[in-house]
Every structure is written in C-alpha cells, then in structure tokens.
Amino acid sequence: MIETIKLTKKYGDLIAVNEISLKLVEGDVFGFIGPNGSGKTTTMRMIATLLNPDYGEAYVCGQSIYTHTEEIRRLVGFMPDFFGVYDDMTVLEYLEFFAATYRINGPSRRKICEEKLELVDMSFKRDAMVSQLSRGQTQRIGLARVMLHDPQVLLLDEPASGLDPRARIEIRNLLRRLGAMNKTVIVSSHILPELADVCTRVGMIEKGELIIDGYVGEVMKKARQAIVLHIRVTENAEKAAQLLEQCDEVGHVSMQGDMILAKLHPGTMDYSNLPMALFEAGYRLTLFREEEVNLETAFMELTKGKQQ
Ligand SMILES: Nc1ncnc2c1ncn2[C@@H]1O[C@H](COP(=O)(O)OP(=O)(O)OP(=O)(O)O)[C@@H](O)[C@H]1O
Q: Which UniProt keywords apply (predicted)?
C-alpha cells in the first residue's frame, strides 16, 4: 500500500529525512514516533505528493509519487497538524463544501457527509457552527473531512495533539476502526504511549533517520533479549544483590531504591535457581517478578545508544 525507498529530503545543509525505507500493507496502523523536528511531517508530505523528495522513491498503492500525483491524491487522505476551518459554516455545510471539491455531487453527497460524521461520532453537531466547536471536535471534523473520498491511505499528522484525555481516547478508538476497515494509516506523534496500544506497527524517527521499524510484537521481542527481574527482600538488599551477581544466570545487578534489578544474560529463560539461592542464604522475598515489557520500555531499550 505504501512503500518508500531511501526517501530523502534536504533543506540546505539540513537532512530533514534521510533515506527512509518503509513498507506498509492494508490494515497496518503505523505509529510514526519522533521528537519535534525529527522529520515526520516532511515524510508524510512527500508520500502525500505535497513535497518533492531530493532522492529516493515512494509508491502508494503501487503508483509512484513522481508520475501519479493525481491518482495518489485520490487515494490518500492527509490531515495536517494545523488546518484552517471556515467559520461561517455549519459542520454539515463544511463537509459538503469539501465533498464538492472531491467532485462528490448529487444526493449521495449529503449521505456520505453524514456517514463520516457518524464515523467520528459528531452527528450530534451536524447543524452547529464550525466556529463553535471545541478543539477536539474540530480535530474530529478534520478527520471526517479527510475521509470524505474514502481514501485507502490515511496520513494523520499528530491528530491527538492538544486534545483532552477523553478526546484522545476517542481518536484512538477511531484509529482502531480504520485499521479494521483495512485502511493503511500512518499516524504521527511525539508521544509514544499515545499510540502504543492502537498501532500494529511502530517506527521511530530521530534526526531524519528511521531508527526502529517493525510490527509491535517484533519490536517487543527484540527488546526482550534479556529478562530483567525485580526482586525485593526484607533486609540486607545490598548483600542479596551481591549474591545474585555471583549466579550464572545473572549478567548485571543494580539497585533501584530498595529493589534489586537483576538483568539476566541474553537468551537465559530459566531463572528458577535464583529464588532458591536467596532462600537458602536466609533471605525472605517480598517481590520476585519479571519486568513487564511494554512498548515504552521496549523503545527505551532499543534506542539506547542510538539517540544522542
Ligand atoms: N520548509 C522548510 N524549510 C527549512 N527547513 C524545514 C522546512 N520544513 C521543515 N524543516 C526542517 O526539517 C526538519 C524536520 O521537520 P518536520 O516538520 O518534518 O519535523 P516533525 O517531526 O514533523 O516535527 P513536529 O513534531 O515538530 O511536527 C526540522 O528541522 C525543520 O526545522
């Protein structure tokens, strides 16, 4: 659905996007994560044919961004991070106006607009003035707008920025629905937890370079190369830590307050000896569990050393 090959954009000496290669298929909801200025918008604008790359190639549904601009614009719905709305219109008029620009005419136009309003849970505001919407409601109308022509690919630039927690949850639910509808979605954010539970795939961009890219499961697996145990004993934690350090399974031990963090050697899965060793030395355990690997800890682990 979307393929980029060494996609590159420079602004003078600055390499805003540096040889990004990506391949996304139908139903992929790709969380594009990176700090401010890392190149997310620039990448999306190139895929949307709004900006010419300096080097590299991108295809949307098999069509090149260089030769099939018109076709790609029909296939893509791009929601920029900032977009204007026309104040003196009702919500429905606003959508009908944009539907007309997509040449959606006749009786189907109203129906399509109402369907998209339904999809973003905004039917109850169909007759409200656009100027009277909250920021979250405006974002949702923006999403309805980019879906009017039923694009196969959605490029959503920070759709949840500036929204309250409830509106963020609604955007997440909507992203899930889009994936279930077999759309291909790229959604950017500089906040990882915001996207962690809705994306099927994640990529992290730093200074124009894609430093991690993979299906959520793969990323977690990569990060899980070494199990970390969280251990707490009733007393003499420092001594217990020293004892653990002598065990064959353990690679590195550190303290976090009164908790011992024991990182096992990569690939070591069986650590059943460790509680035994502690018991036999007279320690009483109050905690013994594996550190949970969620997407956030996975990223922290995998990007160690890659970010300056
Ligand atoms: N038109 C331009 N001229 C010069 N430099 C630009 C231009 N557009 C973007 N840049 C630079 O390119 C880099 C990448 O910008 P981009 O907007 O793609 O980042 P981003 O990851 O989307 O950031 P944010 O999270 O802040 O939206 C930044 O250093 C930015 O200053």
A: ATP-binding, Nucleotide-binding, Transport
DSSP run (H or E) holding 264: strand 259-264
Look at residue 84 and tell me whether its pLDDT is greater than 80: no
Task: Give yes or no for a contact between 54 and 10, defined as CB atoms under 8 angstroms apart.
Answer: yes
**How much is the average pLDDT of 112-127?**
91
Residue 237 is predicted with a pLDDT of: 95
- CA 213 to ligand 1 center in whole angstroms: 21
Confidence of residue 306 (pLDDT cuts 50, 70, 90): low
- Whole-structure pTM value: 0.80
- Is the beta carbon of 34 within 6 A of some atom in ligand 1? yes
Q: Counting atoms of ligand 1 from 1, which one is nearest the CA of 45? A: 18
β-strands 55-60, 285-290 pairing: unpaired
3-state secondary structure 111-169: HHHHHHHHHCCCHHHCCCEHHHCCHHHHHHHHHHHHCCCCCCEEEECCCCCCCCHHHHH
DSSP letter assigned to residue 80 = -
Whether the CB of 80 sits within 6 Å of ligand 1: no
* Residue 272, ligand 1, Cβ within 6 A: no
Domains in the chain with CATH codes: 2-214 (3.40.50.300), 225-292 (3.30.70.100)
Q: How many angstroms separate the first and last alpha carbons of the chain?
A: 33
Residue having the nearest C-alpha atom to atom 12 of ligand 1:
16
Distance of CA 307 to the CA centre of its chain: 18
